[in-house]
Amino acid sequence: MATRKKVLLKVIILGDSGVGKTSLMGQFVSHRFSNQYKATIGADFLTKEVQIDDRLVTMQIWDTAGQERFQSLGVAFYRGADCCVLVYDVTSANSFNSLDSWRDEFLIQAGPRDPENFPFVVIGNKVDLDNRAIQARKAQNWCTDKSNVPYFETSAKEGINVEKAFETVARNALAREKDIDSTPDFPAPIPLIPNSRPTQPNECPC
Ligand code: G3D
Ligand code: MG
């Protein structure tokens, strides 16, 4: 079997403070749900290797360190993202209403080439709680309107659906990776024009 190149995917997680972004990442990367874990994370990333069909993929997942309260995450956070996970809390209507501005912010800051088809995944988290404020259908409609973004309902606390959501993140980012391979980011290089300066009398003509 031919060796395929290793793939590194940058995934960023956005959403209002408190929706469970850090908890989702902790649950996915190390199957843990704890406060201690959260405290150790800065505006940084964790990696996890996943197998997608016959490909080994390293997911580099970027979390925020609370600056999302001010929507000031800095351009390095967004740069080169292959997938953007938008998270809201199913018990908080405000966090659902913020999805639009998070999506807009991402598109402005990351500036993907094909914004309409950029791979987003939406997660409605905290389904273990019984005081739901947003019905699944409402969130699903929002996602359908935005070029059919995949939608998952999860509980980072109980580990419900987290793996499945991130697998879709990897698959969709990988599909885009294939597009990138066949579409150069930059125009073809301009061929160098040979120096047309005539050779001087004492200069080697080679
Ligand atoms: P953030 O990174 O988006 O700011 P956190 O969110 O991961 O820090 O989580 C915010 C609070 O929500 C935490 O509670 C966390 O334990 C809780 N939380 C996260 N995911 C879930 C979930 O799936 N179910 C429930 N019930 N709670 C969740 P505290 O009390 O530490 O603020
Ligand atoms: Mg956090």
The CATH class assignment is Alpha Beta
The H/E string reads: EHHEEHEHHEHEH
N-to-C CA distance: 46 Å
Oligomer: single chain
Q: Any idea what the shape is?
A: globular
- What structural class do the secondary elements suggest? alpha/beta
CATH topology: Rossmann fold
Mean pLDDT: 83
Instruction: Please indicate the percent range of residues in DSSP E strands (runs of 2 or more).
Output: 15-25%
According to CATH, the homologous superfamily is P-loop containing nucleotide triphosphate hydrolases
Description:
This protein is an alpha/beta fold and 206 residues long. The chain has one domain: Rossmann fold. The protein is 33% helix and 19% strand. The protein contains seven helices and six strands, in the order βααββαβααβαβα. Strands 2-3-1-4-5-6 form a six-stranded mixed beta sheet, sandwiched between helices. β2 (45-52) and β3 (55-62) form a beta hairpin. The longest helix has 21 residues, at 162-182. The termini are far apart. The site of magnesium ion (MG) has 4 residues, from α1. One of its GO terms (molecular function) is GTPase activity. Residues 196-206 have a biased composition (Polar residues). It is found in: Late endosome membrane.
